[in-house]
Amino acid sequence: MSYVPRRSLFSLLLFTLVAAIPMTTFAETLSFYVGTYTGGESKGIYYAALDLETGKLSEPKLVAETPNPTFLTLSADGKFLYSVGEISQFRGQRTGAVASFAVKDGGKLEALNEQPVGGAGPCHVFLSPEDKFVLVANYGGGSVASLPVKEDGSLGPAVSVIQHSGSSVNPQRQQGPHGHAIYVTANGKFALAADLGLDQVLVYQWDNETGKLTPNDPPHIAVTPGGGPRHLAMDDEGKFLYVLQELSSKLEVWSLDSDKGTGEEIEIHSTLPEDFEGNNSTAEIYLHPNGKFLYCSNRGHNSIAIFKVDPETGKLTAAGHESTQGKVPRHFIIDPSGKYLLAANQDSHNIVSFKIDAATGLLKEVGSQITVPSPVCVIFEPK
Questions:
Q1: How far apart are CA 163 and CA 144, in angstroms?
Q2: Which of 19, 25, 155, 301 qualifies as a FRET site for 125, CA 20 to 30 Å off?
Q3: Could you tell me the CA-to-CA distances from 292 to 267, 286, 314 in Å, in that order?
Q4: pLDDT per residue over 338-353, tens digit each?
């Protein structure tokens, strides 16, 4: 019988034990940024992480001081972050701004530059294909704009600013235009802008080489009067458009012709339970990465409305509601794996983690939440 030294035998045993430890023992995390309103305790943009094994959230830290960074977006490579400055005055002009940041180690943000956006109160920012341009919707100014992204991640002056005009039926909220969001379609041909004040989704031909926005023919999709379109969602193939109505708490489903920039209404759903009698306004809408579920946030009912999606017809089936464990869920996000949803409650200053049931789409609180002052936007870093 051959002799095995004790030290070698111990090393072999230790190697065997280590090899037997599952890789999931070492939890994987996904970091995220939080945009806020800075009128109270908030100083700007915060940074935290989600444990992808447990759903737990890490304590947030301030990574950039900037006024009212209420909507954020990240470049595809995660090297640059863009934030609206939801303000009405910038450098002596009646306009808001958009800011660019370089992402540094530990999530820290280094300010690059700011540019005016041609309208007050910008509230939504979106990156065009290949991260060539930043598109912005101005709520207070009732306009939309596009700005070029330079090689160093900074922004150039706006190349397109389009002022909306008109009104709709709600005398308190729709006396004039209020641009609330803007998105580029999956095929890159059009930019769709939700205007709460006009009850329209304005359709622009999009030029990703020049950044120019040109009104389409027809120039808009008209939704139900008094609804107040706020945010939009589209499937990956660009066949269906989901329009979330802030004022009526309705969700409109449209078929979408992404080659012509036209749509046709399919159906309308309420985002609320039938027995709800209080005041409510919707906020965010998000299509699950697998395309099988769609979610909307209710401010008042303080819930996430859950719908099952028929991928062939685009039609929805109501699946239920889940409390966001806070007040005024202004925004929420689903991680790229589709496993977790993070709900940001603006008025209760908390972000709550929920696990998504892969079979039903229903949500279950995982018992983890963090305090962030006035959170209004959450975005994950690209993996």
A1: 7
A2: 301
A3: 17, 11, 10
A4: 999 999 999 999 999 9
